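call fold(seq) -> tokens
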Amino acid sequence: MVGATMKGLYFQQSSTNEEITFLFQERENLPVTDDNFVKLQVKACALSPINTKLLAEMKMEKDFFPVGREVAGIVLDVGAKVSFFRPDDEVVGVLPLDSEDPGLCEVIQVHEHYLVHKPEKVSWTEAAGTIRDGVRACTALYYLSHLSPRKSVLIMDGASAFGTIAIQLAHHRGAKVISTACCLEDKQHLERIRPPVARVIDVSNGKGHVAESCLEETGGLGVDIVIDAGVRLYSKDDEPAVKFQLPHKHDIITLLGVGGHWVTTEENLQLDPPDSHCLFLKGATVAFLNDEVWNLSNVQQGKYLFTHLKRRDGEVISWYFQTAT
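ret:
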């Protein structure tokens, strides 16, 4: 295949940033020239939303951006200094933001630090489809909130892909899990999880009282860890409809226990002096879960062990990451 050409998918943003065009470009299948890079035959690639705002903030100005970053495949060749992999290894990983190669391509080259070994019983599509949310959940629970046994954890929107993995991660560490459901189907899904979720709070149509339910479940002490899916900063009348089911920031602060950890995905979180004072009195902390924090900081989170998770129908399909000890 040396010297052959192949097609990769890219996107081009208009000058007004209002329209995105997708197109295929020819790429040459070059041999590995960098010492720490791996040549990978892509077997599956997940399509996550393209964060054009973040790309602009990072000054990553290009004519064409590669599409597809979560990949799974077989190692074809390795550079001279690659130590973790060898040809024919099955791997999965997330390409960095500045990757020149699109995941939607037959063969790509990627630094070995962005890959891990794929478990034998996990399919290509399942591996590529779960790695991103697995890393996010691992970051939120292990690195930002320091999850430990017997802690109480509130995971908002637990029926989402991220939420389902986070719930099972928390269960694995022996935590007591509370979650919210945005509709009847989500509620039924959460109630079928084993081991069971301690409490499912129905927030459809804004009828759920998250703070009251959490305080009741914890005997008035509040939860130790909160992982939100966004929060409302103002009254319902002043917020867009998409945030109607989200809890208000005051609800989160109210239900948070002494010494608690609030992990938020709200990038524009605003805390007024009374909010900060309340968090101060509780000795609580606020951490921000940026989807790319592990990537932007260029910090490698070490080797990972893989453990199976279950999807809605009970069939084993996915796994999560745990730092090796």
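Helices lie at 52-57, 124-144, 161-172, 184-191, 210-217, 249-255, 273-282, 293-296.
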